[in-house]
Amino acid sequence: TERTLSIIKPDATSRNLTGKINAKFEEAGLRIVAQKRIQLSKEQAGEFYKVHAERPFYGELCEFMASGPVVVQVLEGESAITKNREVMGATNPADADEGTIRAEFAESVGENSVHGSDAPETAAEEIAFFFSGLEIVG
Ligand code: GTP
Ligand code: MG
């Protein structure tokens, strides 16, 4: 089994969609083994998304991620990284497959409801960014 970091973004928490999104994870066989609701500062959002620092949307992305509460979580399961990205759907909701979280809930390419780690190395880094080992109970 594998673990991945997931974030339910401010556009989704503000529309009260945390439970519906968690249901999608659980229906796909992903277990929520850690979860907390927090609000990031712009600086923390910038640190988390530093790989995108040179992208034109970086400022907007950091501002958005700090604009309201997020729910950060660790999902566990068989091929959890890939499986979570399947459940999330394409970055742009207009391209996301039917039934995915982004197809159902996302508002735009920027306000796209969820984040998921994209590889084992980034998953390990991103989990450690938010959680200590004691907070993850498999
Ligand atoms: P994450 O799981 O959030 O990393 O999404 P992703 O891997 O599908 O997309 P990517 O890593 O390429 O981009 C990270 C995030 O930046 C996206 O989820 C969007 O929130 C945001 N983003 C990407 N492209 C754009 C864009 O063209 N405009 C804006 N405003 N935001 C964008
Ligand atoms: Mg990404």
TrEMBL record:
Stored PROSITE patterns: NDPK (PS00469), NDPK_LIKE (PS51374)
Catalytic function, reaction form: a 2'-deoxyribonucleoside 5'-diphosphate + ATP = a 2'-deoxyribonucleoside 5'-triphosphate + ADP; a ribonucleoside 5'-diphosphate + ATP = a ribonucleoside 5'-triphosphate + ADP
GO cellular component annotations of the record: cytoplasm
Key words of the record: ATP-binding, Cytoplasm, Kinase, Magnesium, Metal-binding, Nucleotide metabolism, Nucleotide-binding, Phosphoprotein, Transferase
Molecular function terms, GO-annotated: ATP binding; metal ion binding; nucleoside diphosphate kinase activity
Location(s) in or outside the cell: Cytoplasm
Active-site residues, record numbering mapped to chain: 115 (pros-phosphohistidine intermediate)
Every Nucleoside diphosphate kinase-like domain range: 1-138
Complex formation: Homotetramer.
Entry function: Major role in the synthesis of nucleoside triphosphates other than ATP. The ATP gamma phosphate is transferred to the NDP beta phosphate via a ping-pong mechanism, using a phosphorylated active-site intermediate.
Assigned protein family: Belongs to the NDK family.
Protein name, UniProt field: Nucleoside diphosphate kinase
Species whose genome carries this gene: Roseivivax halodurans JCM 10272
